[in-house]
Amino acid sequence: AYGGLNFTALKGGLSDGIDSIDFGRGLIGGGFLGYNHQAGDVVIGGEVVVNTGKARVYGEGVNITYVADLRARIGRVVGDHFVYLSGGVSALQTSGAIRGKRVPLANVGAGIETPLGEALFFGADYTHRTTDVRVFGAPITVGYHNIGARIGYRF
Fold first, then answer.
1. pLDDT by residue (tens digit) across 76-98?
2. What's the per-residue H, E or C state across the chain?
3. Sign of CA dihedral 75, 129, 10, 17
4. What pTM, to 2 d.p., does this model score?
5. Are 64 and 53 within 8 A, CB to CB?
6. How many CB atoms lie within 10 A of CB 87?
């Protein structure tokens, strides 16, 4: 089992197929807990990641109350590094200019972790989240990219 803290930069937006709204830049941060099983150099596992932060839409503040991910990970140990692919489901809750909208999303990603000692590790992670929703009756695609850093502890 493992757990830790992560900090992520996000870029994303909304699109109706004709027009799009850019979220601009934002920062989110939070924590993660997970479990891995290793057989040789192959590792499979799952983790829960919960983040909170702020993004901007046309100068209006959109507060991300939370983004929660439940994802599976599969990868290989290469030297001292764990390189993985991930996929799962996410929930996004907003407040502010887009008040109280809870959006389910699919997530896919990749990452790498390297040990900083016996139990500590540092990692870098990319996650893409996307979904289709209806806003005022119109179909909208919500999607964003995260690139982040994480530090964790294996226990």
1. 999 999 999 999 999 888 776 55
2. CEEEEEEEEEEEEEECCCCEEEEEEEEEEEEEEEEEEEECCEEEEEEEEEEEEEEEECCEEEEEEEEEEEEEEEEEEECCEEEEEEEEEEEEEEEECCCCCEEEEEEEEEEEEEECCCCEEEEEEEEEEEEEEEECCEEEEEEEEEEEEEEEEEC
3. positive
4. 0.86
5. yes
6. 14
